Amino acid sequence: MKIEAHHSFKYKMIELKARVRDHEFLRKKLSALGAQYVETFQQTDLYFKVPEGRLKLREVEGNHTAELIYYERENIPGPKRDNAFILEIKEPEDLKKILKKILTPLTVIEKVREIYKYQGTQIHMDTVKKLGKFIEFERRTSDDSKVAEKDRQILEKIMAKLKIDPNNFETLSYSDLPQT
User: Fold this and answer.
1) pTM of the complete model
2) What pLDDT sits at residue 79?
3) Phi, psi (rounded to 5 degrees) for 164
4) What is the overall mean pLDDT for the chain?
5) For residues 60-74, average pLDDT
């Protein structure tokens, strides 16, 4: 068995996630702002227990590759820093079998993700099975604290334009939220 990786990426991001009730309202707001619709797809994330951070194998319906994603993120409300390492995997089934043998699977998160781009920010509207509806903002940043603070402020401005209630900020990963 040979597991082949195509690409690896390391990102520093500022991220913001909030619970929402109405994706249709947000679609209209995004359209009015001039946000660019990118695509919609079904994702399945298999999370594993690791000593630090979070590790997941992400598969997208209809895609023959997967992503192994390790990330560390603050568990705070509002915009937070996120350090992620992403490895694109050519044969995900083989890797999934190996990971299940050596690590403890924690949970599976299934979601429909709708992606938009707006002024350098990627916006996800997620409908997550057993959790509900969310909006998530991701913006690449740097180690420079001034740049990161500017990026944090940009996310807060976009959030305000979309009328996202700060009381609905989500501090945790989907994997950590209680399922209904």
Assistant:
1) 0.89
2) 82
3) -85, 125
4) 91
5) 91
Domains located in the chain, CATH noted:
5-171 (2.40.320.10)
Would you say 71 and 84 are in contact if contact means Cβ atoms under 8 Å apart?
A: yes
**Cβ–Cβ < 8 Å for 162, 135:** yes
Take residue 34 and report the two structure tokens written for it.
């001039």
What is d(CA 43, CA 134) in angstroms, rounded to the nearest whole number?
Answer: 14
- Spatial neighbors of 1 by CB under 8 A, at least 6 apart, are 91, 94
97-130: pLDDT as tens digits: 999 999 999 999 999 999 999 999 999 999 999 9
Rounded Cα–Cα distance for residues 90 and 85 (Å):
16
Say which residue the tokens 């915009």 belong to: 79
What 116-124 contacts at long range (C-beta under 8 Å, 24+ apart), as own/partner pairs, is 116/30, 116/35, 116/36, 116/37, 116/38, 117/35, 117/36, 117/38, 118/30, 118/33, 118/34, 118/35, 118/36, 118/158, 119/154, 119/158, 120/154, 121/154, 121/155, 121/158, 123/30, 123/35, 123/158
How far is 179 from 159, CA to CA, in rounded Å? 25
Beta bridge mates, 49? none
pLDDT bracket for residue 138 (50, 70, 90): very high
